[in-house]
Specification:
Layout: H1 2-17, H2 26-46, H3 49-69, H4 72-84, E1 91-94, E2 101-106, E3 120-129, E4 132-142, E5 148-150
Antiparallel strand pairs: 1-2, 2-3, 3-4, 4-5
Helix pairs in contact: 1-3, 2-3
């Protein structure tokens, strides 16, 4: 078990260190969200440091894969869901080039207390990449140009 942790820890560190610059890629954003989610799940299930680290490492890799696999077509579809998707109703699509499929269920829009001029929405994304399903949760907020940007 410790060998697994030692093998996965450098991947986690390298992936998270790529988040340090100001231009976050979708893969980096997914990795950050996945790491946090995986650590929480790992701790809840295993109730020890090993489980937390394994959860964080697995979450990082899965989050990076989901975020990185979305191409321009998928990003356009996701933006459309954030903009027009009814809260609680899923919208699904399959990328014609990659064959990856996504099912996105947005929640109601809200204004965060730290940025009352912003409009944000949380969504559940079920991504099926190479036949493997992965669920992640994201939040997007409108930027100054009116585009939805994924948050960390």
């Amino acid at each position: 078990m410790k060998k697994i942790i030692l093998c996965l820890l450098p991947i986690l560190i390298l992936t998270l260190s790529s988040c340090a610059n100001q231009q976050f890629s979708k893969g980096s954003q997914g990795a950050g969200i996945g790491a946090a989610s995986g650590a929480i799940i790992g701790q809840a299930l295993g109730r020890n440091t090993e489980a937390t680290l394994i959860g964080a490492a697995v979450g990082t890799m899965l989050g990076y894969i989901v975020g990185n696999e979305m191409d321009k077509f998928d990003k356009r579809e996701l933006n459309h869901v954030y903009e027009f998707g009814p809260s609680g109703r899923s919208t699904a699509w399959t990328n014609p080039d990659s064959g990856n499929s996504y099912k996105v269920t947005p929640q109601p829009a809200y204004t965060p207390p730290q940025a009352p001029q912003a409009l944000c929405r949380r969504a559940e994304i079920l991504a099926t990449i190479n036949g493997k399903a992965q669920t992640t949760y994201t939040t997007a907020c409108r930027n100054n140009s009116g585009q939805w940007e994924l948050q960390n």
